[in-house]
Design brief:
By secondary structure, the protein is α/β, with parallel strands linked by helices. Helices cover about 25% and strands about 30% of the residues. The chain has three domains: about 190 residues, HUPs (Rossmann fold); about 55 residues, Roll (SH3 type barrels), CATH 2.30.30.280; about 80 residues, Elongation Factor Tu (Ef-tu), domain 3, CATH 2.40.30. It contains nine helices and 17 strands. It is globular.
């Protein structure tokens, strides 16, 4: 076939609309496309085989393969269940057992998907890899900078903060300059009306029923005996009731506490060592400071002095301005105003306008 002037690109294809249009778009633009579908999780094992989910179900793998065949480019299936399970799922369980709220999609992107894609890209002589994320990447001042996708409602830059310069150098995000409605239109015009109708999944891929508590119980068989019957306490230590086990609660949670007060109460802290869950009023959830570990900077090698950035503490968070500074191997964050429900284990992600500055895990 010979090389094309655009080069060879390995496209991660989940079978959904975004990655399918990504592959079609690059193929049309003159890249030599190779499609790859990563099998990260065995849906049959969690009762998810009958339900269309974000990736890896048999239907999705078949959809990706059919599209590749129709467009005349090769398609492979890459089984990464072992790496995925050991790293992502073990981390997911460990984080809940440590009283934190994990962010598996960030870890998966950084340590599993991109690593697996780049490794396979090297084997197949592909210069680039591409995914269907709504984000953009550009070279500026010698660094590869990620910025938000044009469609703010679909922007996925938040989950990409862990990517290295080495990874970004070879990454293409074709959907970043488009709105979701345009992508649907492209699918319909290319004869893939069914793709445009597919429902999207916002769940964690290995928890297809969205019930992480049941998942934890399946993974840690004696979990309930170990953690059942701990105490709900107030900030001053007053015991106000019994809970079902600290891993089944997250900071900021209000519903499902099964405890009656005269006013709404929220989980403000989780103490795994004593199996206690601290409850408090809404204002007790509000804090102005936090520390961030395992951070990765994208736009800068080190943060400028007296640096302030819009800081998001969860995926759909609008963000709040904060001063961010280095403190050894951590970042210290001081918000300009109090923010609610800072959950240890979640990602703190920093923005400068539309640019992703970097991120890390909340301590």
């Amino acid at each position: 076939m010979g090389t094309t002037k655009k080069g060879k690109v390995l496209v991660a294809m989940s079978g959904g609309i975004d990655s399918s249009v990504t592959a079609m778009m690059l193929h049309k633009e003159g890249y030599e496309v190779i499609g790859i579908t990563m099998k990260t999780w065995d849906y049959a094992g969690v009762g998810g085989s009958k339900k269309e989910t974000g990736c890896c179900s048999l239907d999705s793998i078949n959809d990706a393969r059919i599209l590749a065949v129709n467009h005349g480019f090769p398609h492979f299936i890459l089984d990464i269940r072992a790496e995925f399970g050991d790293y992502i799922i073990d981390n997911f369980v460990e984080e809940y057992l440590a009283g934190r709220t994990p962010n598996p999609c960030v870890l998966c992107n950084t340590h599993i998907k991109w690593d697996a894609l780049l490794k396979r890209a090297d084997q197949l002589d592909c210069e680039f890899i591409a995914t269907g994320h709504y984000a953009q990447v550009r070279l500026e001042n010698g660094r590869y900078v990620v910025s938000k996708g044009l469609d703010e409602s679909k922007d996925q830059s938040y989950v990409l903060w862990g990517l290295t310069q080495e990874s970004l150098k070879r990454t293409i995000f074709p959907l970043g300059k488009f709105r979701k409605s345009e992508i649907k239109q492209m699918a319909i015009e290319s004869g893939y009306e069914e793709l445009a109708k597919k429902s999207e999944s916002y769940e964690i891929c290995f928890v297809p029923d969205n019930d992480y508590r049941a998942f934890l119980k399946r993974k840690v068989t004696d979990l309930e005996e170990r953690v059942d019957g701990g105490s709900f306490v107030l900030a001053d230590g007053t015991v106000v009731g019994k809970h079902k086990g600290y891993p089944f609660y997250t900071v900021g949670q209000r519903k499902g506490l099964d405890i009656a007060f005269g006013e709404p109460m929220f989980v403000t802290e989780i103490k795994p060592e004593s199996n206690t869950v601290v409850l408090g009023k809404k204002e007790e959830l509000e804090k102005q400071k936090m520390s961030v570990r395992n951070f990765n900077l994208i736009k800068y090698t080190t943060l400028p002095e007296d640096y302030a950035a819009l800081t998001r503490i969860r995926y759909k968070d609008a963000g709040m301005m904060a001063n961010v500074s280095h403190n050894g191997d951590k970042l210290e964050v001081l918000f300009h105003e109090k923010v609610s429900a800072i959950a240890p284990g979640q990602s703190a992600v920093f923005y400068e306008g539309n640019d992703l500055v970097g991120g890390g895990f909340i301590i």
